[in-house]
Design goal:
189 residues, alpha+beta, Beta Polymerase, domain 2, 2 domains, 5-stranded mixed sheet, two-stranded antiparallel ribbon, 8 helices, 7 strands, 55% helix, globular
Amino acid sequence: MNSDFLIETVARFFALLRERQIDYVLVGGIAMLQYVEGRNTEDIDLIMAVSALERLPELQVETRDADFARSRFGDLKVDVLLTSNPLFDEVRKRYTTTRRFVEQDIPCATVEGLTLLKLYALPSLYRQGNFTRVGLYENDVATLLHAHNPPIEPLLAELTLYLSEIDMTQVTQIVNEIQQRISRFEKRS
């Protein structure tokens, strides 16, 4: 899909969400672009309720499980994080702001919300052996921490409500490694 057509399709999709009064939050790569430069993405990622999916027949759901739905709006890939997952719902409720995108005001996850979602996903990505996505997510977290310096301890405390002790140990180790990388970078700059 060329970039002009992509922007037009995204604008139409967000207009449809507004018209139908669908409650959603933009997350993922496009949300990252609201805070940092240089993040590429090929899809739209949203937090949304299952009931909202049912009110959008234009959104063709290809696969769905308890937490996620992969779908399409024409040629646009739309990944939906379902609010039936307690963390996704919490991000929707507490970690949302409004950002301007495609000439519209869009509900978007905050830096803290994006950090929570990326850290939450990492243990699963490691178990799946998905090295490419692990690298992207770790880089997203590093970029958010470096550029915006959100208070990380409260976010880690929040994640303990949603991750196992083993996963939290791994996430804490990842955060420590990222903080060490940031420290090394700042010392050299």
